[in-house]
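Narrative summary of target 7.
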Amino acid sequence: MPFTPIPQVVRHRLTTLMVGLVVVAIAGGLALQQSATADIPSFQQPPNLANPTKYKTLTDVLPSVQSLLLKFVGAVTLLAFMAGAYSYFLSGGNEEQLNKGRQQMVGSLIAFFIVVAAAGIVSIFEKLFKTGHPF
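Modeled conformation, tokenized:
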């Protein structure tokens, strides 16, 4: 069975879906972080069991997960941009390859800026809910 390439429209929709899922995951993490800080009694550990991590609660873990997720998405968008640049520069004058590489570079830049903007919006909301004013 020969390899059939994924149509551009499907790849664009998958990329948009992935970026949307990242934004929802970041926003959901913030919401979970805010709801976890409510007046809920914490669970106590058994007296002789030491915590092997530096995290005591879920709200301590979420910023690290969010940071790791942002680094991962940044790396993926950088790789997508480099793949588009590779396709663009090695197109050999083929107009279809030129357009494909250009579209991939532009799409990865747009995805990167969406992720950075989402992180900024989450940071603003986090500061707003913690201090009462965003700046």
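Residues 59-135 form one domain.
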